[in-house]
Design a protein that fits this description.
- This protein is an alpha+beta fold and 122 residues long.
- Helices cover 25% and strands 34% of the residues.
- The protein is built from 2 helices and 7 strands, in the order αβαββββββ.
- The protein has helices at residues 2-20, 41-52, and strands at residues 26-34, 61-67, 69-73, 78-82, 97-101, 105-112, 119-120.
- A hairpin with a 6-residue loop joins β6 and β7 (119-120).
- α1 (2-20) crosses α2 (41-52).
- The longest helix has 19 residues, at 2-20.
- The protein is elongated and about 50 Å long.
- The mean pLDDT is 91.
- The structure holds zinc ion.
- Residues 73, 75-76, 89, 91-92, 94 line the site of zinc ion.
Length: 122
C-alpha cells in the first residue's frame, strides 16, 4: 500500500525529531496533504495507527490539513489554482499545466510530550 510506505517515512521524521529534542512521547502529528497528491486521508489514518503503534508516537493524534493545488498554465502564461488531479486550467480549460504546489505530502509539525515545546519540522 502506497500510504503505508509514506507513513513509514513519517515515522522516521517523527522519531528523529523526538530524539533530537530528547522527547520520549509524541502527542500529535500534523500532516499537510496536497489536493493533487494521490493520498487517501482515511488510508493514512489507518496506516498511522498501524505504523506508530510501538514507537514514540503510539496513541498520538493525527491531524491532516489539505493544501490547495497550484500550477503554471503554459497557455495562459500564468500561475493558476488546480482544484484536483486531472483538472484543467480554470482560465482556458487547457491541460498544459505544470503542478507547482499541492502535489505531495509533508510533515508540518509534531507535538512532543507535555514537558516539551512543540517543534516545527522544516
Ligand atoms: Zn490556461
Amino acid at each position: 500500500m502506497h500510504e503505508m510506505s509514506l507513513m513509514e517515512s513519517v515515522r522516521e521524521i517523527v522519531e528523529q525529531t523526538a530524539s533530537q529534542h530528547g522527547a520520549r512521547r509524541v502527542t500529535a502529528v500534523r500532516l499537510q496533504i496536497g489536493a493533487l497528491a494521490t493520498v487517501e486521508p482515511e488510508a493514512l489514518r489507518f496506516c498511522f495507527d498501524v505504523v506508530m503503534q510501538d514507537g514514540v508516537a503510539a496513541g498520538a493524534r493525527l491531524e491532516i490539513e489539505t493544501v490547495p493545488g497550484s500550477g503554471w498554465c503554459w497557455d495562459c502564461g500564468e500561475a493558476v489554482a488546480i482544484a484536483e488531479g486531472g483538472a484543467g486550467c480554470p482560465g482556458c480549460g487547457g491541460y498544459r499545466l505544470e503542478v507547482t504546489g499541492g502535489g505531495d505530502m509533508r510533515v508540518k509539525d509534531i507535538d512532543l510530550g507535555p514537558e516539551q515545546e512543540s517543534s516545527t519540522c522544516a
